[in-house]
Amino acid sequence: MRIAVALSKNDERKVYPGPFGHAPRFAIYEVEGEGFRLVEVRENPYAAMEGGDKHERMRELLKDVDLRVGARFGHGGSMGAFPMAERLEVGPVSVAEALEKVRAR
C-alpha cells in the first residue's frame, strides 16, 4: 500500500496545514509490515491552481497512491478530488504523528 502525506512548505517533518490539494509537495511512503518506507518526495505542480480540471489532474498525479493523508480536505465540505475511503484527515501535526494515525486506523 502507498500513502501520500501532504508536506508543509518549509518543513518536511510537518503536514501541510491547509487543504490537501494545495500542499506544495507530497511524501510518498510504502507500507512495509508495521513500518513505512519513504519512496519519494513528489512536487505538486497544481498547488496554486483553483477550479477547472484541478481534481482530475490531482487524481492523475497521485494515481499510484492508495491513501491520501492531510490536515484537511476539500472546501466548504466538498469531497474534493478524493473520496472519503481514500483519505485520512489528521490535522496540522508532524509527519510522524500522521503516520501513527495511519497505523492506528
Would you kindly provide a written description of the structure presented here, covering whatever features stand out?
The chain has two helices and five strands, in the order E-E-E-H-E-E-H. A hairpin with a 2-residue loop joins strand 2 and strand 3 (35-43). It is α/β, with parallel strands linked by helices and 105 residues long. The chain is globular. The chain has a five-stranded mixed β-sheet with strand order 3-2-1-4-5, with helices on one face. The chain has helices spanning 54-61, 95-104; strands at residues 2-7, 25-32, 35-43, 67-70, 87-89. Helix content is 17%, strand content 29%.
List keywords for this structure.
single chain; 105 residues; alpha/beta; five-stranded mixed sheet; 2 helices; 5 strands
Summarize it.
The chain has 105 residues and is α/β, with parallel strands linked by helices. The protein has helices spanning 54-61, 95-104, and strands spanning 2-7, 25-32, 35-43, 67-70, 87-89.
| Average pLDDT level | 91
The assigned structural class equals: alpha/beta
Strands of the biggest beta sheet: in what spatial order? Answer: 3-2-1-4-5
* Order of secondary-structure elements: EEEHEEH
Low-confidence blocks of residues: none
The shape is globular
Give the % helix. 10-25%
What is the radius of gyration?
12 Å
Q: Characterize the main sheet.
A: 5 strands, mixed
Q: Based on DSSP secondary structure assignment, what is the total number of beta strands?
A: 5
Q: Beta-sheet strand percentage?
A: 25-35%
Number of H/I helices: 2
